[in-house]
Amino acid sequence: MEQGLLTPEDEESLRQIASKIESYEKDRKNLIPILQMMQETAGYLPKEAIKMAAGYLGVAECEVYGVATFYNQFRFHPPGKHHIKVCMGTACAVKGGGIILENFERKLNIHAGETTPDREFSLERVACVGCCALAPVAVFGETNRGHLDQETVHGHMTPSAVEGLLDGIAIEKQMKERVLKRMEMEKQIEERVGNVDESDG
Amino acid sequence: MAKFLVDNREIEADEGTILLQACLDHGIYIPNLCFVKGMDHPSASCRMCFVEVEGERQPVPSCTVKVKDGIVVKTDTPQVRQLQRTAFQLLMSVHDVDCANCPSNKKCELQRIAKFLKAPLKPRALEIYLKEPRIDESHPFLDYYPNRCVLCGRCVYTCGQRNAQSFLAFSKRGFNTVISFYGAADLSTLDCPNCHACVDVCPVGALVLKEPAKRTVPASSDLGLTPKPLEV
Ligand code: SF4
Ligand code: SF4
Ligand code: FES
Ligand code: FES
User: Fold this and answer.
1) What is the atom index within ligand 3 of the atom nearest the CA of A131?
2) Omega before B133 within 30 of 0, i.e. cis
3) Are residues B18 and B42 in contact, defined by beta-carbon separation less than 8 angstroms?
């Protein structure tokens, strides 16, 4: 399982984890609480964190991994800026949730549970999100440094809606970048004009 | 010593011996996958070793029964066979049967059970469900075939018996459960004594030594070491 490189934020999270772990009694009953603390801090369980938990409690790494993979709650890939949850609850599964998930996987070129290498998107399959009348459902979450900011529910999903939503995000990103570039340029021009003014005066 | 009856045959074994063990020791075969000789608390997870014990309302897994003086055991009743065939069919519904290309061919416990129960290796009525990826090659000298694995746990148990902690573990859940050797990609950081007891104890062809050319760490047999033989 490849996770890619650690970002400076990840490294900072790992430093925090290393100091927080000290407050736990060295007993294997604390494995799950420690994993929860790690995920809370880093947004996911980096390999380095699993190693740390194993070393701290004196259990094999594969056992820590085994326990962590048993629970849906733990993630092994960093959350993307856009975290997409595709519902595979009964109603959504019947209404073609699987096809929706597959479309996201294909468009993003990752599997459920993974994150795109640029950390823009992460994909997750979830059980009923509680609005079965809108099946099939996908929930888009915006994350900020690993923590969820806001979520939007998209009902009656279709393959073309998958494409539309992803394209929408890409376009929005491009527009933001363009605006930023223009502001940068205007600033530069202003500075230059300012300089001219000064030399005039 | 306890004296008791199995299929009308009188058998003697130490009181408290695991019934399955006592039967196997006396040449009475009961299909089994998850039991390893010497286990104190068998997991009884494969559900193959059912027998009927007089006084019990339902068949019981013989790996969970301790021998007592005077018990009366039947290994071959219609109800026992039905339970075993069902368990076997379900196991095989997630199995990639390709014996001709499997290192376990002819010594495989599944083939033995199929023959014994007169059950087909490929369950006819059930859809076959296979896991991806087909092979886990992340270990320096082992390969793991999840679609041959019966998740009996023998490898996990055996490794844990040999070492302070097992370097193999169950991971994931439900249909996706697999054996993982997470953390073993760099063997130098583990205390794995390279005994491949896990390979020897696997009742099927799920855990095998890598082809010599692909091993990044030599297996003990390459080094001329003879690992302590297993008692199975
Ligand atoms: S594990 Fe046994 S049943 Fe399965 S393919 Fe290999 S020999 Fe055949
Ligand atoms: S690899 Fe072999 S011994 Fe280990 S759980 Fe699978 S079938 Fe059993
Ligand atoms: S099953 Fe998808 S919202 Fe309920
Ligand atoms: S050997 Fe008894 S349940 Fe597996």
Assistant:
1) 3
2) yes
3) yes
Please list the residue range(s) of chain B that carry CATH number 3.30.70.20: 130-232
Proximal ligand: closest to the CA of B24: 4
* Minimal-distance CA residue to ligand 3 atom 1: A89
According to CATH, the topology of domain B1-129 is Ubiquitin-like (UB roll) (3.10.20)
Range list for CATH 3.10.20.740 in chain B: 1-129
ipTM above 0.90, yes or no: no
Distance between Cα B109 and ligand 4 center (Å): 13
A104 SS3 class: helix
Residue A133 tokens read as 């009348």
Does B169 contact A59 at a Cβ distance shorter than 8 Å?
A: no
- pLDDT tens digit sequence for A33-68: 999 999 999 999 999 999 999 999 999 999 999 999
Q: Is A127 near chain B, with CB under 8 Å?
A: no
Query: Would you write out chain B's pLDDT as a tens digit for each of its 232 residues?
Result: 999 999 999 999 999 999 999 999 999 999 999 999 999 999 999 999 999 999 999 999 999 999 999 999 999 999 999 999 999 999 999 999 999 999 999 999 999 999 999 999 998 888 889 999 999 999 999 999 999 999 999 999 999 999 888 999 999 999 999 999 999 888 877 888 888 899 999 999 999 999 988 888 877 666 665 555 554 4
Distance of CA B222 to the CA centre of its chain: 26
Full-model pTM: 0.85
Domains along the sequence of chain A with CATH? 8-70 (1.10.10), 82-180 (3.40.30.10)
Helix locations, chain A, DSSP H: 8-20, 31-42, 47-57, 61-70, 90-94, 97-108, 159-200
B176 CB-near residues (< 8 Å, 6+ apart): B131
Q: Name the residue in chain B with its Cα closest to that of A50.
A: B183
CB B13 within 8 A of CB B27: no
pLDDT digits 0-9 by tens, A85-99: 999 999 999 999 999
**Closest ligand by atom to B101 CA:** 1
Which candidate from A50, A51, A63 shows the least CB-CB separation from B169?
A63
**CATH top-level class for B130-232?**
alpha beta
Q: Cα(A44)–Cα(A33) distance, rounded to whole angstroms?
A: 14
| Cα(B42) to centroid(ligand 2), Å | 15
Nearest to B182 among A59, A61, A70 (CB): A61
Any ligand 3 atom below 6 A from CB of A92: yes
